[in-house]
Write a structure and sequence with these properties.
Number of strands: 27
CATH architecture of the largest domain: Beta Barrel
CATH topology of the largest domain: L,D-transpeptidase catalytic domain-like
Largest sheet: 5 strands, mixed
Number of helices: 4
Shape: elongated
Strand order of the largest sheet: 21-20-19-27-22
């Protein structure tokens, strides 16, 4: 009802038809009161500019607007993103300090991380997993104690390219004290430090294991000294979230356990044509023949990397062989020492054992055609395992290169 309508209605009530007795007088009084009350009500309710005429108009009790925190929280992965790199994720704050960050994958598994000492950033303890959805919530406060927050849900990328990694270890296998773990990649690795962080070793005796790169596709691992007998070792591979090269990621996340067996080391003396085998406090000497003057055996520490009951040896597959060519299809009790073709093996065609060096570089032990398990070669073969050490001394040859087979023991620890 408009103001003039209200006044008119009030006047109509006061000037209406006369009523009997006291009712008539009461009607006049009520009408007058309503008229005055209506006018007063309208005057109090609205001013000409539509504003309240109470305390707010006088500027006395208006509620102050809530204050906003100066702290600005930023999550490196935008909310809704679907191709976030698993490495480099972080939460940062400007004009404030972080007070809490929680992060979990789609299954609710928490992601652990740490706030920096200055309270300005938070990073996860490890790279995020590829192809995984995450949600992060972060809170911060400014110098006045006012709180701000940020939330982001995103998914890490699914790699279009991967580099497969393979090693020379069998799950729960048992190896000699000289075993070196060699990991090979199918593609060149550029981010080598990141790969080393993604391959870690846990040894029951606390041995520290370090990796050394030979080129950009191979990395070998060993402790400073030979493994201790009966040591239990687990390799932890966490490479699926590691960008090994731009746009290329690893392909394996797994744990691979193995064990170190008894201690057995053999020393070949090319000058005396004898091999001394030490195991468990006992020593045995075996007559051998090493590489001749034209094809001397490598000096240095080598490791048995494989065993073959019978194998073929052909000079065409070995570089720099001098003298007569050879092709022996049934070499018995063969144990490989180098990638270049050096073996400890049985020899049934010669008779120089303990007398002279007559081989093309291998270490030959007396055997019979077809392999005699009771021969010197047969017994040595049966007692040996992959990872056993064979050291050659006093040969006229050079020292074997660390990357020739599992010969990394020839590189000192400082350079490893």
């Amino acid at each position: 009802m408009k103001p003039n309508q209200a006044v008119g209605a009030a006047m109509a009530m006061t000037h209406g038809p006369a009523r009997r007795g006291g009712v008539r007088g009461a009607g006049r009084r009520a009408g007058a009161a309503l008229l005055m009350g209506g006018v007063l009500l309208l005057t109090a309710a609205c001013n000409s500019d539509g504003s309240s005429s109470g305390d707010d108009a006088a500027g006395g009790s208006a509620s102050a607007a809530p204050k906003t925190s100066a702290a600005v929280v930023t999550v490196s992965a935008k909310d809704g993103a679907g191709d976030v790199a698993p490495a480099g994720f972080q939460v940062t704050v400007a004009s404030g300090t972080l007070t809490g960050v929680t992060m979990a994958d789609k299954d609710g598994k928490p992601v652990t991380g740490k706030v920096s000492s200055d309270g300005q950033s938070w990073k996860p303890d490890a790279a995020l997993a590829v192809g995984t959805a995450y949600t992060v919530n972060a809170q911060a406060k400014d110098s006045a104690g006012l709180v701000s927050a940020a939330t982001s849900s995103f998914t890490t990328l699914s790699p279009a390219k991967t580099a497969a990694a393979t090693d020379n270890i069998a799950d729960n296998g048992t190896y000699g004290v000289g075993m070196i773990v060699s990991v090979n990649f199918t593609k060149a690795v550029k981010n080598k430090d990141d790969v080393l962080k993604g391959i870690t070793f846990e040894a029951s005796d606390g041995s520290v294991v370090k990796g050394h790169w030979f080129g950009d596709r191979r990395v070998d691992f060993r402790p400073e000294k030979y493994w201790k007998p009966d040591t239990k070792v687990t390799i932890h591979y966490r490479l699926k979230s590691v960008e090994v090269s731009p746009g290329v990621y690893g392909d394996v996340d797994k744990d691979e356990p193995f064990k170190i067996g008894r201690e057995r080391t053999s020393t070949v003396d090319a000058a005396t044509h004898q091999m001394t085998v030490q195991q468990g406090g006992s020593t045995k000497t075996i007559p051998i023949t090493a590489g001749n003057d034209d094809n001397p055996s490598w000096n240095g520490v080598m490791v048995i990397s494989s065993k073959e009951k019978v194998t073929r040896m052909n000079s065409a597959t070995v570089s720099n062989v001098k003298g007569s060519e050879y092709d022996i299809s049934d070499v018995p009790h063969a144990m490989r020492l180098t990638a270049s073709g050096t073996y400890v093996h049985g020899n049934y065609w010669g008779s120089a054992f303990g007398k002279a060096n007559a081989s093309h570089g291998c270490i030959g032990l007396q055997d019979a055609k077809g392999g005699d398990d009771s021969s010197s070669a047969g017994r040595f073969f049966a007692d040996s395992i992959v990872g056993d050490v064979v050291k050659v001394v006093n040969s006229k040859g050079k020292t074997v290169q660390p990357d020739n087979g599992l010969s990394g023991w020839n590189l000192n620890w400082a350079n490893w």
